[in-house]
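Workshop exercise sheet. Pairs work together: one partner reads the sequence aloud, the other fills in the structure field after running the prediction. Swap roles for the next sheet.
Pair: D.N. / O.F.
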Amino acid sequence: MNRTKQYILNLTLIFTLTFIVLYFSLKDNTDEIINIFKQLNPLLLGICIVAILIYHAIVAQILTIFARFYNPNYRFKAGFKNALIAALFHGITPFASGGQFIQAYVFYEDDIDVGESASILLMDFIVYQTTLMFYTLACVMLEWKRVFSGGSLYLLALLGFLINFLSIIGIWIVSRSIKLHKWLCENGVNIVYRLHLIKDKKSTIEKINIYLEKFNIEVKRLASKPELIIKVVVANILRLTLYFSIPILCAWTLGIPLTIDYAFESIALSAFISMINSFVPLPGASGGAEGTFVVLFATLVGRSNATCMMLVWRFVTYYFILLVGLIAYAKFKRGHKIRRIEEEIYENRIIQ
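Structure field:
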């Protein structure tokens, strides 16, 4: 199956799951939900949309900062285009796995070669995941009573946090320890191979060695630029806080009485939703994202209000961004097609 057919299949799956979730969300409380939506404030909805665009603008600024390591002339406009296109492909691929591949391609078309784009994306991954780890740790510690007494979903969120925490810590330790690195390659891969979880042991060892070596190189490169690290960490904190604050903006858009006193709880619940969604293998965590949102926010505002908040939140953070990303990708493809045609015409004139 080629990629275009796979993306069409993924989109069909997304919309099918969305329809199913909407049906079960609306069928028992239709009148109440309609009455809540009658209170929707268009101006505040516009603010929600501006907030998600600012979120992606922050992502773009982070990419631009890293890209200027290799191309001092790299522009924010190119970074914003890259961020929006990545959001599209993150949203339509399982486990958000397609974003980085398309980002490398977009960087390449903007005169950054594949090796350099891989370094940019790895630096972004290192700083973002490390920031996210400490951010969610703070949420877990400050909301520990809710986490440990709130039921299976909160425990799943805790498990998601622990897996992310151990993954990033493990990569840091292995990349810095030659002995552990050697043991992992010689023994760890053997264990996985005997369990028939991988087919080519030699290739897997080579990939691990290359990844960890590159990780170590990028860590050293980042360590040489402490001012840049601080700048990007602050940007990531703003990015996460803004994204996790969007549900409370959605509540205000609908006139739902979720006061500023609940701002931190709302941010923490949003962080837990993100941790849980990391387990959902479907494109855009479709089905899981909606259901988890309703269950968790129902504890603050009730089920009907939570359902309405979810519909606005999902539109703003997912479907709207898919549309914007699709427009950005179409313009990108058209622009580069025209550029290639112009180059071919110019080369033909020179030859003639």
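Discussion prompt: The chain has one domain: 3-351. What would you look at next?
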